[in-house]
Amino acid sequence: MKKKFLKYFIICTAIMLFMSKSSFASSLEIPVWSTNATKLNVTNSSTVNNITNEANQTVNNNQTSNAVNSNATVSPTLNSKEAVTNNPLKLTCGGAILIEQNTGNVLYDYNMHEKLRPASVTKVMTILLIMEALDSGKISLTDKIPCSKEASSMGGSQIWLETTEQLTVDEMLKAICVVSANDCTVAMAEYLEGSEEAFVAKMNERAKQLGMNDTTFKNCHGIDEDGHLTSAYDIAIMSRELLVNHPSITKYTTIYMDSLRDGKSQLVNTNKLVRNYEGCTGLKTGSTSLALFNLSASATKNGLSLIAVVLKGSSSDVRFTEARKLLDYGFSNYEYKNLGKKGDVIGNVNINKGIENYTNAILKNDVGIVIKKSKGNSISQNIELFNSISAPVSKGQKVGEVSFYLDNKEIGKADLVSSSDISKYSFGAMATKVYKSWFSLLRS
Question: Is-catalytic flag, 120?
């Protein structure tokens, strides 16, 4: 009986190998959604709604403000091509900007590159570096942070740290985000880089990497110092980097009231919008006698996330009023549409000389777009798959692209990648595949 089964297995294996080899030779075609499938250059862009498996499907949405963005990561610059720049909101601050958080589209620009003193909004970069240190494993939330004599004597906003006490990173972050504690800020800087000077060098290095060309940091806390300057544009860049890549920071930036030291130290958020603006997610206030009143404010409603930056407001009320104006403008005029999710299957791509005949083409990243509510033009999409790919194919390898159009004008692209590894055809690989198939069949 065993000999008969073995003979039957060998014959079937040979037949399957022959058929498989024939299929490679014939290069069976899988239909694609475009007759002009070519390898295109991809722009750094994010997302628009419900991609389906049909070619050139039109999504009847509203007019887009700028480009589609197909990456969840932050681009080094913001897209300001169609931003409102003539100040219809009649802002009176020194400089301001409104951006959409996911795409980085600039929706409103008022002196956004004016170099101004940021005051404690500086701490957005400090917090970003702390979060990156947490993500890398360099520190943990439970680490105990000592307080140096220099940190304890900072002045300004503080929680009056003593040189004899230690707080955890979690407690330090809470104090920095909620009450803008300068003493905790310097203590964290010293712990991370050995000295505040070394930490400030890291801040400037990171700013350069992010394309913050208007920025020079002189300290980690924002107390007035000659040459310590940035712009609304640059603050929007680092705010976006923090919120997109470290969304857990909102655990701290959305606190309105809390306490430290077993309830002995009361904390009340300096950002009034946390309490009285729907959807507020943060982010950071700042004020000094020279910088006047500054704010980076973030909020999310109905899937649309905005960041409004106001610098050099004449009073605390002005900064909050003008940030509210910017956010209201954004939420009233724009919406964010998801076009697809990372991993969505868009089609199949034929594989030559592979152990498998095809691979699924999936979206590399989430895809979406900012749409202007007041316009009703349609967005169309065109899916292009590579006609022929030879094995081996790596999971994540680019196998196509989807392009988005508004009024026949291309507004962005997103990569399609292979969903799996496909090994090159060989007798050993095919025999293994057949063996596994038979083994699975016999077990069932």
Answer: yes
Is residue 289 located within the same domain as residue 320? yes
Select the more confidently predicted residue: 79 or 58: 79
From the candidates 75, 180, 296, 305, give the one annotated as an active-site residue: 180
Distance CA 97, CA 110 (A): 6
- Alpha-helical (H) ranges within 258-304 are 273-276
Catalytic residue status for 45: no
Give the pTM. 0.76
Q: CA–CA separation, 348 vs 350, rounded Å?
A: 7
Q: What is the DSSP letter of 122?
A: G
| Distance between CA atoms of residues 367 and 146, nearest Å | 44
Q: What does the block give as tokens for 338?
A: 């998801």
Residues 307 and 381 in one domain: no
Residues 270 and 396 in one domain: no
**Residue 380: phi, psi to the nearest 5?**
-115, 160
- Mean pLDDT (whole number) for 426-435: 65
The pLDDT of 183-188, averaged and rounded, is 98
Q: What is the pLDDT of residues 241-255, one digit of tens each?
A: 999 999 999 999 999
CA–CA separation, 146 vs 283, rounded Å? Answer: 26
Average pLDDT over residues 394-415: 88
Please tell me the total count of domains within the chain: 2
In the predicted model, is pLDDT for residue 42 greater than 50? no
Q: Active-site residue among 20, 120, 287, 418?
A: 120
